[in-house]
Amino acid sequence: ASAPSHSRHIKPTLLVSRIYQPSNLRDVGQESRVAGEMTCKSQRLMQQAGLIHPSNPGCYYYLPATVRSMEKLVRVIDQEMQEIGGQKLDMPSLCSADLWKTSERWDLMGKELFRLKDRHGADYCLGPTHEEAVTTLVAHQATLSYRQLPLLLYQVTRKFRDEPKPKFGLLRGREFYMKDMYSFDVSKEAAYQTYEAVCQAYAKLFARLGLRCVQVQADTGNIGGTLSHEFQLPADIGEDRLLVCGTCSFSANVEMLSSDTTDCPQCKAGTLVESKGIEVGHTFYLGKKYSHIFKASFSNSQNKPTIAEMGCYGLGVTRILAAAIEVMSTEEGIRWPGLIAPYQVCVLPPKKGSKVHEAAVLADELILNLEESLPRLRGEVVLDDRTQMTVGKRLKDASRLGYPYVIIVGQGALEETPSFEVICQQTGETVFLSKDGLLDLL
Ligand code: ATP
Ligand code: MG
Ligand code: MG
Ligand code: MG
């Protein structure tokens, strides 16, 4: 067999962060403001596996495997948003205070807004969300006609929020990735239809990721509007409290209920069960709140300018990544939704100088073979060629990072009918397979 090309020799993630012990930390009284303090499982696992590295409170380096995973997640999000007509754009993060003063959110946002001045003394903020920006953009479209609506514009960008307590790794950052979409419709009825379509797309997205989210009625906060839902992933460390009726379809964030009732406000009979959740998505019907202020209008069928009906829809991209790890992983190792695992397969050749070291060349051949036979595995197979380390040690790293499949190339590979040890990390099963068996499995 020809030697594998350099690009196939993908090195596993070698950037492994030092593990932060509480004793390493200065006592500053406000522990959540210490970069890298371990506050939850996903953060610990992600730092140990070399996926993230703490920079300053609420800010992280996203290391190469994380970027791969994020890119996959964004691709799935793109598919779902574009399937309902979403068009992707990219708006500035550096936002002029003028817009925020016009909407009166410059004051309303308080300390959460990162504010700065340019060299001329003009006020700016780092975008925590983009209702003002997108509505102004649409207001500047001179020829928008009712025929072009609904208009769904979305982006995947960094958002900046000076959270009072950044913690839980990527779950609550001060700089994080969000997918935010904004819709413009001809009427309230049409806006409600768009709202429903986005909620369905979100439900589909979470189902594809294997995340069992619940959609609950939610408060509209300082975004404004009248109808709102959150997509919550049930988890012990969730900071939201959810109430779900045991009898009817009612489910809500506790923030929604004025008094401490147990009776269900919808069916008046069922008991409300409380659980904790991580807010991974949020949808809002905005009505004309922003379109009225910024004069985002379209020409209706009588050619009259008409103010558009709006909605906005957020997904926490980096939060979804960490939340998935939080709920799927074991204490020892990361488990991923298969769709967004950074790599699908890790191949472990034998240790240098071991009895079976000649099997090393078979590992190279196996990778070539896998990538040629199964095109979707191209670039998805890692060769852990740190052969100065024992297989056991590398296996531990592989289990920590959570490659869905780990293949050990050892004694079996040298036999007349070669076989390989395959560990399926999702199920924890180990099987011995021939090359054909392996292709079937993958
Ligand atoms: P939270 O209640 O957790 O503070 P939020 O209600 O302030 O979130 P939204 O304004 O609804 O957040 O933003 C849309 C989405 O962005 C959220 O549903 C969440 O998934 C994500 N998100 C919000 N704040 C953060 C953060 N600090 N770090 C990571 N993701 C976040
Ligand atoms: Mg918030
Ligand atoms: Mg919230
Ligand atoms: Mg929210």
From TrEMBL:
Catalysed reactions, semicolon-separated: tRNA(Pro) + L-proline + ATP = L-prolyl-tRNA(Pro) + AMP + diphosphate
Annotated transmembrane regions: none
Listed GO CC annotations: mitochondrial matrix
InterPro entries: aa-tRNA-synt_IIb, aa-tRNA-synth_II, aa-tRNA-synth_II/BPL/LPL, Anticodon-bd, Anticodon-bd_dom_sf, Pro-tRNA-ligase_IIa, Pro-tRNA_synthetase, ProRS_core_prok
Enzyme class: ligase
Positions of the Aminoacyl-transfer RNA synthetases class-II family profile domain: 71-337
Name recorded for this polypeptide: Probable proline--tRNA ligase, mitochondrial
Source organism per UniProt: Parambassis ranga (Indian glassy fish)
